[in-house]
Amino acid sequence: MMLGWLLRHAIHPSVNVATGFLDEIAELKRLQWQSRDGIERQIIKRLRWIVAHAYEQFRFCRERLDSVGLHPEDIRSLDDFRRIPTITRSAMSGCLDAEALLTRRSGTLTSTGGTGGRPLIFLTSHNAGTAGLASELFFESWAGVEGHERKFQSRPYVRLKDRVFLNELQVTSGSIVRSPKAAYRKLCGFRPKLVGGNAALRILASYMADNDLEITERPRGVSAWGIPLLPEQVKDMSKAFCDNIYDGYGSAELSGIVAQECEAKIGLHINTDLSLVEVVQDGELCSEGERGRLVVTNLRNLATPFIRYEQGDSAVVLDDCACGRRMPLIAHIRGKDPTFIQTKGGMRIPKATLNSFVGHMEESKHIQRFSFSKDSAGELVLTVYPKPGFAPRDANRIHHKLAEILGNVTGISVRLHGNHGTNLLA
Questions:
Q1: Extended strands (E) in 117-220
Q2: Is residue 129 part of a domain?
Q3: Residue 34 included in any domain
Q4: Are 52 and 72 in contact, with CB atoms under 8 Å apart?
Q5: Given its phi and psi angles, is residue 82 left (phi above 0), alpha (psi -120 to 50 degrees) or beta?
Q6: How is residue 193 annotated by DSSP?
Q7: Do β-strands 194-197 and 151-155 pair in parallel, antiparallel, or remain unpaired?
Q8: Is 414 exposed, middle or buried (0-12, 13-18, 19+ CB in 10 A)?
Q9: Strands, E, within 173-323: which ranges?
Q10: 255 touches 306 (CB < 8 A)
């Protein structure tokens, strides 16, 4: 109670003077009810700003615009902007390497987490981090929870600075996998107003539902992100936590959670102050009800420009929402693998969680892609497709870290895939 009071009346107002994150949230609360024309004008203003910066500071961005005879000053509409060619994750990785972006150190080192098996390491600018924080707290307010109130979050790793600042009890994905029972006890003791998190939250919900475990004080809402929610997972979360469940969408490339369901629960509204999300098929924008590839633009990140970036996901375009918000609406997102790997002990671990373990390791900077499977004995096998610079000792380090994370849940081996086939290294 005391921490919540201090955050609301002293800490958050003081930090807002330097970062403006409370002002960002207030602006989002105003923006959500604007007309579509008003929202589009705001998007174009931010697009011109971010594209001009990228054109001046990054050679690969300048080359993309020059290839179609486009200059930042020429962008006066979304149609003008869409002349910029899209860029895939693999092409983006090559551009960042060629431009030696990570040597600039003008931002926070960030990893995508590799939930799709292809990690990407880049830099996030301070202003993008602030906008991402504001977006997360803004969406949490839809569940009736404010930034100073207690929250329980499962994350790939603990962010110590957020423990106090966000009044969060953070548990890592690895700790939930090792002992969902211990995570449940922490949840009961903390009595949060919101339960949220990545794919590992599904493990905790399943454990609680399977064992008929309850919490004394049910939260006001649940915010689930990382992978799309499946019907059986919604059922488990409803039983374990509460019925007020919100599906969210985001990524490290977009600086956080950029879309979430509202109370109508028919689709996810996009925070157009943080990102532009296009749904395209065969180079054309999709109409209502059509599925297409997600092409995204981070409107804030000055340290690494994600402009017309192919996220690797797809979604369906929706039009109006009963809630009255005019923020763009998408639904039925696909891309990140929602499936599970079941261990010999019976635990079902989301593939996205396993991939995230590897994607957040330092050694992932030398990995092109990787995949998890099970061998004939039912043990986990990680197959690594290395980049130049990857050494056998890197595989041994990955094996050691995974063994620590997974504990006694399952055995694990690491295999290196090279020109001469696949070799077992650990």
A1: 121-124, 151-155, 168-172, 194-197
A2: no
A3: no
A4: yes
A5: alpha
A6: S
A7: parallel
A8: buried
A9: 194-197, 221-224, 245-251, 256-261, 268-270, 275-281, 284-285, 291-298, 309-318
A10: no
Nearest-angstrom CA–CA distance, 167 and 146? 10
Run means of pLDDT, 10 residues per run, the chain, 426 residues: 89 93 95 94 96 96 97 96 95 90 81 71 93 95 95 86 87 92 96 94 94 93 88 93 95 94 95 97 94 97 96 93 95 81 80 83 85 81 88 88 82 76 52
First to last CA, the chain: 48
Amino acid at 314: S
CATH number for position 362? 3.30.300.30
Instruction: Compute the chain's Rg from CA coordinates.
Output: 21
CB distance 251 to 226 below 8 Å: no
Quote the DSSP letter at residue 112: -
The three-class DSSP label of residue 179 is coil
What does the chain come to in residues?
A: 426
Within-domain flag for 356: yes
Alpha carbons 397 and 330: distance in angstroms, whole number: 40
CA angle 403, 408, 413 (to 5 degrees): 40
Amino acid at 20: G
Decide the pairing of beta strands 108-111 and 121-124.
antiparallel
Any alpha helices (H) in 67-171, and if so which ranges? Answer: 78-81, 89-98, 126-141, 160-165
- Spell out the residues 6+ positions from residue 346 whose beta carbon is closer than 8 angstroms to its own: none
Number of domains in the chain: 1
Helix (H), strand (E) at residue 57: helix 36-57
**Is residue 191 assigned to a domain?**
no
Contact (Cβ atoms closer than 8 angstroms) between residue 242 and residue 218? yes
322: Cα separation from own chain's centroid: 26
The reply to whether the predicted model has a pTM over 0.85 is yes
